[in-house]
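[job 0417] fold request received: Orotidine 5'-phosphate decarboxylase
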Amino acid sequence: MRPTFTRSYTERAGKFSNPAARQLLEVMARKQSNLCISVDVTLKGEFLEVVDAVGPYTCLIKTHIDIIEDFDQDLITQLKNLSSKHDFLIFEDRKFADIGNTVVLQYSKGVHKIASWSDITNAHAIPGPSIITGLASVGVPLGRGLLLLAEMSSKGSLASGSYTEGAVRMARDHRDFVIGFIAQNRMEGIGSRGFEAEVDEDFLIITPGVGLDQSGDSMGQQYRTPFQVVAEGGSDVIIVGRGIYGGGVDIPTIQTRAERYRAEGWKAYEARLK
Ligand code: S5P
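[job 0417] inference complete; emitting structure tokens
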């Protein structure tokens, strides 16, 4: 059987029943972009300015909505307008990690009402399957998708080995809602009998810790290049943050960098299809 990562995004889109996964793969093919941009800035005005500037180059805007100091409902209205204008999906990087009842409230209520605007969100596997059933009770009726954190990019991460295997097993039991993983490697076949190529399952692999010019930061982040991540590692989407908006640069520079990462990510995808 042909391994998942050698199939085109378009071919794979049709196989997902989850609407968010399907839409993401379709946007990726349409825009020739497997670049998710993490806009980790703390002021609404700057956030919207960067999102509007990089919108054309990205398939997915990743947010940490709780770091925005002057958050209001209008930010969400404007973000959704930009997502229609530029044709990208929205991923709130909330990293839920609590019991089912609590994550239901955190996902749907409070100031941010994440489920009402975020196509995709993510969760740690640490609480066990009830975190998925809790989040799914809110997200599935809205057509949302969930990524489980199976591995992390930070030095000394404890998410490896049997923990990663446990996360994959949890995902397999909830295929309607769990669309893939935040991970550094492909996950098909992990924790099951066969080798990757023998298992016909498809999970999206979304990979942070991507940079072309740095190997890490002073706080344990570790970077690999788009080629290492997509062509060699078989990941589907690269997440780039400071590599694009970092260093206090102007908007044209941010756009030049976004296009550079888009082109590198796409080239790596085309290389692995061959
Ligand atoms: O393992 C992880 C998982 C995530 S979601 N490592 C990460 O770095 N992230 C997130 O990706 C992190 O919270 C940040 O928003 C982004 C990486 O940002 P960068 O500036 O280092 O590219």
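[job 0417] notes: The longest helix spans residues 251-273. Residues 193-198 have pLDDT under 50 and may be disordered.
[job 0417] exit 0
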